[in-house]
Design a protein that fits this description.
single chain; alpha+beta; NADH Oxidase; 4-stranded antiparallel sheet; 41% helix; globular; oxidoreductase activity
């Protein structure tokens, strides 16, 4: 396989949940934030923002929302936000109505595209951080309490929290989590969904289950993780609770979904 330092950084990507008590220098922060700004942006709308969480009390609040104490220890902590609020300010200055029922950038399509742009920016920052020898963990757990997150960060109308990102110098060395065979995720021309394809997939999944079951996550270092298919079945049997419903929270922020 062709490789270089960027590819090696991506192939060795691991979620780091323990950080050394060392700050990140300003030049590094400038580089990480500049890289995030150079990620692709749908129609050049630049419709995302990132909140730096610097206040320790606010970090503690993020850790409480996420249910993960290590969030409070991250030297760098960001919350990436889908942001059509700034564009609403621009539109209003040009005489365009930004009432929720009329504002074109509050549509479901623009909501999803702004969400995508925020994810792309976060991923660019994460990749840059790994290339510099830093460790990161992406924090979907902050969406456990969207209303609380909106309140804590004073997020205005036409914004919506997407993901958090914690960055620091690693203080642990976890193994790289297994990835499924490419044959299960990369297909030629069409999605293989006939009976023969399903049978082949089930065979590949059985092999992947055995591989995953040999992996030890440092969060529960005394036992191997459950087989991949068991993890999927467990999550598939759960009903989404109200706290994780996107529709009411997005409506409250002014989006038309």
């Amino acid at each position: 396989m062709v490789t270089n330092t960027t590819i090696e950084a991506l192939l060795n990507r691991r979620s780091i949940r323990a950080f050394k008590n060392e700050s990140i220098d300003a030049d590094t922060i400038d580089a990480l934030e500049s890289v995030a700004q150079h990620a692709a942006s749908s129609q050049y709308l630049n419709d995302w923002s990132a909140i730096r969480i610097k206040d320790q009390a606010l970090k503690d609040r993020m850790a409480a929302i996420g249910g993960q104490p290590y969030i409070a220890t991250a030297p760098l902590l960001y919350v990436f936000v889908a942001d059509e609020h700034r564009n609403a300010m621009i539109a209003e200055a040009k005489g365009v109505s930004t009432q929720p029922e009329e504002y074109g950038l509050a549509s479901s399509y623009r909501f999803t595209q702004a969400h995508n742009d925020a994810v792309l920016a976060l991923h660019a920052m994460e990749t840059a951080a790994y290339s510099l020898g830093l460790g990161c963990v992406i924090l979907g757990s902050l969406l456990n309490d969207v209303d609380g997150l909106v309140e804590a960060l004073h997020l205005p109308q036409y914004t919506y929290p997407v993901l958090g990102l914690a960055i620091g110098k690693p203080d642990q060395d976890p193994a790289v989590k297994p990835r499924m065979p490419r044959a299960l995720q990369f297909f030629d021309n069409t999605y293989p969904a006939d009976d023969a394809a399903k049978a082949a997939m089930q065979s590949e999944i059985a092999d992947f289950d055995a591989t995953v079951h040999q992996y030890y996550d440092l969060r529960q270092a005394d036992r191997p993780v459950d087989a991949f298919s068991d993890q999927i079945a467990h999550l598939a049997a759960q009903q989404m609770d109200e706290a994780h419903q996107v529709l009411p929270h997005a409506h409250a922020q002014g989006f038309r979904l």
